[in-house]
Amino acid sequence: MLAYTDDEVMLARSADDFLARFASTKHLRRLRDGRDDTGFDRGVWHEMARLGYAGVLVDEAHGGSAFGHVGAGLLCASFGRHLSTSPFLSSAVLGATALRSALASAQRCWLPRIAEGEAIVALAVDEGRRHAPASTALSAERSGEVHVLRGEKTLVVDGHVADAFVVLARTSGRPGDAAGLSLFLVEADRPGVSVRRQDMIDSRNAARVTFDGVRVATDTAIGPVDGAGPIIDDVLDAGRIALAAELVGIAREAFERTVTYLKRRRQFGHAIGSFQALQHRAAQLHGQIELAQSTVVKAARLRDLGDPRAALFASVAKAKAGDAAERATDEAVQMHGGIGMTDELDVGLYLKRARVAGTLLGDRHLHADRVATLLGF
Amino acid sequence: MTEFADDPQTFRAQIRAWLERHCPPEMRSPAHGEDDICWGGRRWTFRSDAQRQWLNAAAAEGLTVPGWPRAYGGAGMSSAQVQVFDDEMERIGARSPLESFGIWMLGPALLKFGTDEQKRRYLPPIARGEIRWCQGYSEPDAGSDLVALRTRAEDRGDRYVVNGQKIWTSYADQADWIFCLVRTDATAPKHRGLSFVVFDMHTPGVTTRPIKLISGKSPFCETFFENVEVPKANLIGAENGGWTVAKYLLTQEREMIAGRARGLHDGRPLWQVVQELAGDAKGRIVDPILRDRVARAEIDALALTATIERYVEDAAHGHEIGDRSSILKYCNAELNQRRQTLILEASGADGLRWDFVRSDGGEVAPAWLRAKANSIEGGTAEVMLNIVAKRLLDLPAE
After folding, report:
1. Which of B282, B299, B380 to probe by mutation at the A interface, max A CB count within 10 Å?
2. How far is B268 from chain A (nearest CA, A)?
3. Which CATH code, of 1.20.1250.20, 3.20.20.60, 1.10.10.10, 1.20.140.10, is assigned to A229-375?
4. Is the ipTM of this structure higher than 0.90?
5. Domain containing residue B179: CATH number
6. Mean pLDDT by 10 residues, chain B (398 residues)
7. Which of B299, B310, B390 is opposite residue A320, by nearest beta carbon?
8. Active-site residue list of B
9. Whether B357 contacts B363, CB under 8 Å
10. How many whole angstroms separate alpha carbon A317 and alpha carbon B7?
11. Same domain assignment for residues B28 and B67
12. Are A99 and A121 in contact (CB under 8 A)?
């Protein structure tokens, strides 16, 4: 169950080739240094859509490739290795998964466009400094046939280029209650929506999005009003597995570059990789990355199989991969020494992306707590 | 013997039905530590009727060693079938009918390096639990540096005469036979002059002395050889080619230690044990720091289990576990030590008493002390990291 099929191996190989050529750290630097307005290359994203990436979680009836979560995870691992920027996480994973619970008409309207890379649908969840969906305060009050949204979201990935938002809103209860939450699909050009881009350490897209009395038809609700909790968990878990896969890709790439450096760099007349103090740290790290990778494949596979343990493993994977990526990138800087501190070396880019991806949708501490809760202690 | 079907679904149903009929209810719970395991051997006294019935039923079908060929006492299952068998055992919480160094270590080495005659002679008694084996590797001056070992075997035509001393020989005082690494060529470079021999522990000149450990128990012995005569037919592999056999056996041992030998592991999740010791009425572990540390240990335990599963699947697809067993062995030792420490801490002052037992019957302080050996036995944690660094990461020697 954890071994990859031939098709999956082929998908990973072709993604690696493609991303090395068109969406590598070199391209990330170009976008960053040129202060690119979009934050990714739309041409490359369209090509990725043509290869089926944007529709990995969209069913074939809606024009998707339906590779599933294992496929999505393989792509994310490649994104992690190359630090590729694209709206994959926001639109192809989070947006697409949320929309699968929307009304059939909304699915017909949006899913094919997501799969074609023509529309970007972003998820607006977080409001405070920490990922805490139950703390949602953004309100959606019913007024006849519409809901009126008031509040503010932060860290909305690809928010400034989104065509629509899936917004987590409170329709009853108070912030902190797990119940009383709803999801609404809000087009970005609705009156009252304003978007401000946030300048992130990983040079990737995020935005603060304000909803100031935004009126949306009640049938834009995704799932039951007041009862969207299970759908939210499901959507977030899809994103967590994708992020965990990306984190393992980041950890592996940073680690492999470090091992190469350990073999090349000489001090005291020896390759520094011959020193046992460094060998043992490298060996421990290798083990941790292996462990993290297993959790990611397991989580993705369980989700594709519809196994109820998928939620537990989504948190296990997010925690373990976040841990491995943090260690791998910390050690990458340390073992490269002075050069590891320079912007010229890519290692710093991995360090910063690992930190952001590790924090998005809950850091390893939050997920350790969720593992405890799900297991029942 | 039952003819098992090739079709996976029928096969699973057959295994399930067989287990339902033959696994006694008392054997459907994890063993509590090494004293609760069925090890077999000439001197074995069964702890219960259920233990005897379970061994006999499993051995009759080759299910103590399901992956070995039928000719040698196994059930001839493919690795995919063994996986199904393991799943079904786990489903009903069945403990292993038999564990032994013969199953984990010598058997795989014989299957790879033994002659057909040797396989026929040694493997079936292992599978039936009739002969219990011990391992003669370490010596007082050859621990991590195993190839420095000095026990010598002199050539006397049709036999060797063995003189020397082994140490940390697990259960040597209860074993029937020993597999042993000896020096047959004192002039060759260290690992080139070693041979792998097997002999009966009743051979004149063999004596053992148990070593009392910090846990109060004596699972290990010193073993002395004084002019022990070993027929040359008992040589496994080539003369002076013992290191090849020994290394292979060590990888097997590491895989087993790392988790494939289910019987060695108290099968209950850590969180349940801690919950019983330190949980409130609703089952919440009250101390937030303890709860967090247990959660992290559970994450690592699930990650290690998934990794073993992944490697075993790889092996079924032709990619052997090989030196990756060192990763498993290292992580498993670290994790079990963490587990035992957390259980000890959750037990508070009670855990510091020798006679304290958990509500499920498990030991606390002895298990914590026993676990200290996890990062020493079968290759120290440091040796595991050396292997990962040199063989998997290809980092240079100094």
Report:
1. B299
2. 13
3. 1.20.140.10
4. yes
5. 2.40.110.10
6. 86 96 93 85 95 97 95 92 89 92 94 97 98 96 93 96 96 96 92 95 97 92 97 96 93 71 63 96 96 97 92 86 93 94 97 94 92 92 97 94
7. B299
8. 253
9. yes
10. 34
11. yes
12. yes
